[in-house]
Each structure stands twice: as structure tokens, then as C-alpha cells.
Amino acid sequence: MEESKVVVFWFRRDLRLEDNAGLSRALATGLPVLPVFIFDEDILQQLEDKSDRRVDYIHRALEAINQQLKDFGATLNTFYGSPFAIFKTLHKKYRIHEIYCNRDYEPKAIKRDRTIFEFFKAAGIPFKAVKDQVIFDKNELLKNDGSLYTIYTPYAKKWREKLTTKDLQPLDHKGGLFVQQAYTPIISLEKIGFKKTDLTFHPPQLRAHIINNYDKYRDYPALTGTTNLGIALRFGTISIRQCVTFAGQHNAVWLSELIWREFFMQILYHFPNVVNESFKKKYDGIQWRNNEEEFERWCKGQTGYPLVDAGMRQLNSTGYMHNRVRMVAASFLCKHLLIDWRWGEAYFAQKLNDYDLSANNGNWQWAAGCGCDAAPYFRVFNPIIQAEKFDKKQEYSRQWIPELGSAAYPEPMIAHSFARERALKTYAAALDKR
């Protein structure tokens, strides 16, 4: 056992040294900080594709952190296995004074953290989870009567009212001390059962020329009108405080999107049942058709609706889909094909580089009409009108559908007017609104 006391900092969804709340708190203790990252075998074993770009992204972000730690005479200690088992090993090896991490809001992560918390509590060692990936969390934003917000607009209004410059203060990692260790490369992708991908890893950047015009161009998939920071926010290679500060200076519409992110996180935290159930329970009575052949056509981008198909092909090829197109593709699956939103949510979870449970779940339930702040069930996106509005010259569609306009491209698998009427009747029957 090493003699001197250490404080452990556990990296998770916060893969940066800069403006990292939990790391800053750990370094402020004055004790040497042991930085660790655990590749959780339970999570990784669920990923079928061993060339998963998300794992590669995490790996490259960790390599960047490790290079930075080298300048402090330290190294990032990386492990593969069960977090609980690895922490028990660390407990034997080091005199741990405290453990810090940044708070997670997903049900499985909360359960995992609770198990580790209880183990160290029994050993008299504090395990402290710190707010970092949101501006306001848990019960910090409530109605005047103390109840939770479940509708976005009043939540966002209260969020903006409550925000102060103190909430956005960047947190320093300088001045503290890391455990002095010889630099060691992080565990290889091969050792955890994965491969390098075609992903290009760049440190995330806030680009003013894009964010200044975000409200004008964000809905046009052929343009570079969005920030592409979804993956950086998902894995914490950029700080939410930095993003909100920038949004406040440059674009109110982008700020509203960042507030949506927090809204869905607090919904997931307080209503964990939404993972498998509709927020509005009565919507679980919808008689979904769940035709597997039709689902397969949707997955492959063979529906005959160019905007939907281009989006699905972009997703399958790159792990990314433009946000406007995500809404259209999701609405098509739930309303046109009457396929359970959970099928689509699971497919996106498998494919999206920036997959985030709270946002993915929230947006799918919004599209299906069953979420806390959902589009009314009778709103059925018309994919033809959506394409005319946002991809008029078919630049985006042609990029992903080279056979568009030829006999090789399928006819629409269902007429919009028929699908809309069928959806309205099916939803009305489930909700008893005939």
C-alpha cells in the first residue's frame, strides 16, 4: 500500500481538464489527485459494432488528456472491467481520502454510483458527485409551489431568469497537485475489444460564424448551419458553461437548444420510467403496427421519401443525422408507419455518435406525441413539404441518394394522406377521443 493519502478523480462524461467541476474540487483539497478512467465492460459488451466511433472518440479524448497530464508529471490510469471491482482494487492499493466525479443523471449510472458510494461510505471514505454537465440540476429549478417543470417553455423562462454570471464561472484545474507517476499510454482499443474507426478527432471549437447564424441556417441540412458539438457535449470534451456563455453572447436560439438538453436531463432524472414507458401513460395504449419489413426499409433509407431516406443513409454511413431530418424521420416511423417509438429510439441509440439517452428519449417521445412536452398527436410531419421547405434543390437528398430520380429509387411506400388519416384514427382510438 502506498503511504501518502490521495484523492481519486473519476473521469466519465467530462473528458477534459479545463473547466471541469469535479476535477477542480478534487485538486482544491490540496492532496495529490489520482486521475482514473474505467472502460465499463457492461456498457461496452452491449455494443455489437466493434468499430464503434463513440468508443474511438472516448479513446482519443483520453489520449489527449493523458498528453496534458504528462506536463504535470502525471498519467491517466485507465482500466477495463466493472467499475465497482476496479474501485475495490484501488481501495486496496491506495490510501484514498476522498473520491470525486461529476454527476450523471441516467438510471443505470445512478444505480452504479450508489453501489460504489455505499461501499466507500462503509469504509469511511466520502464519494462526492459534483454538478458539471448542466447549469441547473436535480431540484435547482422548480415552480413556485416546489413542483417540477414538465413543460419546456416555462422551464426555459425560469432557467433564463435564474442564470447568473456565477453559474458560468469557469473552474480552474491549475494550482493543484496530481499523483506523480511515470507517463503510461492508456489501455489500447484492441485490449478492450474495439478497433480504430474513420472518425477524425478534433478538439471542439465554438465557431462564431456558424453560431451567429444558427437561427437562420440550422434547419437546412445541405448547409453547415449547426455546431456539430453534440458528441463533444455528450462526452464532455467541451464545458457546458463555456457553451452557454458563448450562446448568450452570440445566439439566443442556440441557447434555447442547450436549455432543451438540460430539460430532458432533469425529466430523465425525476422520471426514470420514461426509458421504457411513455411519459403520458395513456399513449402506451396505441396499437402499433410494428411491421418488421417496413421498419427494415426505414432503417435502410428505402421509404421512397427522399428527406427521410437521405437522413437514414447519412446516419448509417457517418453516425450523424441533421437535427431537422431526425424529427422528420422519427415522425415518419411513428406516424406514417405506426411503428413504436421505442424501436426507432433503440436504432438511433445504436447508430448516433452523439447518442445521449435523455435527449434521444425526449426527442423520440416528442415526435411520437407521448412525451412530457410533445407535439400534439395530430401533428404529422409531411415529408414532402418538409423537403420542399428545407431541401428545395435536393442538394442534401442527392448527396445521400445517388439513384434519386431514377427507376432504381423506390416509390413512396405509403401515401402521406392515407398514413396521416390512419395515424389520427389509431391515436384517437387509444386516447378515446373519437
Automatic annotation (TrEMBL):
InterPro entries tied to this protein: Crypto/Photolyase_FAD-like_sf, Crypto/Photolyase_N_sf, Cryptochr/Photolyase_FAD-bd, Cryptochrome/DNA_photolyase_1, DNA_photolyase_1_CS_C, DNA_photolyase_N, Rossmann-like_a/b/a_fold
Domain Photolyase/cryptochrome alpha/beta: 5-135
Site (Electron transfer via tryptophanyl radical): residue numbering on this chain: 288, 341, 364
Sorted UniProt keywords: Chromophore, FAD, Flavoprotein, Lyase
Organism superkingdom: Bacteria
Any one Pfam family match given in the protein's UniProt record, by short name: DNA_photolyase
KW Flavoprotein (keyword) present: yes
Cofactor dependence: FAD; (6R)-5,10-methylene-5,6,7,8-tetrahydrofolate
The keyword Lyase belongs to this UniProt entry's keyword annotation: yes
Swiss-Prot/TrEMBL GO biological process terms: nucleobase-containing compound metabolic process; response to light stimulus; response to stress
Co-factor note (free text): Binds 1 FAD per subunit.
Listed Gene3D superfamilies: 1.25.40.80, DNA Cyclobutane Dipyrimidine Photolyase, subunit A, domain 3 (1.10.579.10), HUPs (3.40.50.620)
Any one GO molecular function term: DNA binding
Chain segments annotated as coiled-coil in the UniProt record: none
UniProt binding sites for FAD: 214, 254, 257-264, 354-356
The family this protein is said to belong to: Belongs to the DNA photolyase family.
PANTHER family: CRYPTOCHROME, CRYPTOCHROME CIRCADIAN CLOCK 5 ISOFORM X1
The protein's name in its UniProt record: Deoxyribodipyrimidine photolyase
Organism: Sphingobacterium athyrii
